[in-house]
Design a protein that fits this description.
There is one protein chain. This protein has about 160 residues and is mainly alpha-helical. It has a domain of about 100 residues: Rossmann fold (3-Layer(aba) Sandwich), CATH 3.40.50.150. About 35% of the residues lie in helices and about 5% in strands. Strands 1-2 form a two-stranded parallel ribbon. The protein is globular, with a radius of gyration of 17 Å. The C terminus is likely disordered.
């Protein structure tokens, strides 16, 4: 979690970005709503960490009160043909982790993947809060993206 913000903050747009590590609903509800405080709120590969679809929906509702735009980047629910069979084990591991997590009596933020939502579910959750998807695109990452590798492989 520390590497990505550090890398992004060192880039061209780093000075324009405010990083907040807090419960999103508590943070947003503590701010005045007289006018949008942010030009853009970005949910970057984070929705799977939420405890439930209803928490995602509530967070989108809170975000809409404080930003003129919301952007969401999230993993798709299929392995792209570009990545081939190598991506399938990571995808299955994510599904298995979410399937186990949903059966826990109390889900904690320590757990990694807790709620898997794909593009259709995200659109449906946004629609329940009268938010409209303006543009949707699918991005295929480079073949050797580090996500899903063990620490030993990264080092």
């Amino acid at each position: 979690m520390g590497q990505a913000p550090k890398h992004i903050s060192a880039g061209e747009f780093g000075p324009c970005i405010t990083w907040v590590q807090d419960d999103p609903i508590s943070y947003l509800e503590s701010r005045p709503t007289s006018e949008p405080a942010f030009d853009l709120i970005v949910f970057a590969h984070s929705l799977w960490y939420f405890s439930s679809p209803s928490q995602i929906q509530s967070t989108l509702a809170a975000a809409a009160k404080h930003a003129s735009r919301i952007a969401i980047a999230e993993y798709n629910l299929h392995a792209s043909s570009h990545l081939g069979p190598a991506a399938i084990p990571h995808m299955y591991a994510a599904f298995a982790q979410a399937a186990l997590e949903v059966h826990k009596p109390t889900s904690t933020s320590i757990s990694n993947i807790r709620t898997i939502v794909g593009p259709c579910a995200i659109t449906a959750l946004a629609a329940k809060e009268n938010l409209t998807v303006v543009r949707e695109a699918e991005f295929t990452p480079e073949k050797y993206v580090g996500d899903g590798r063990s620490a030993a492989e990264i080092v």
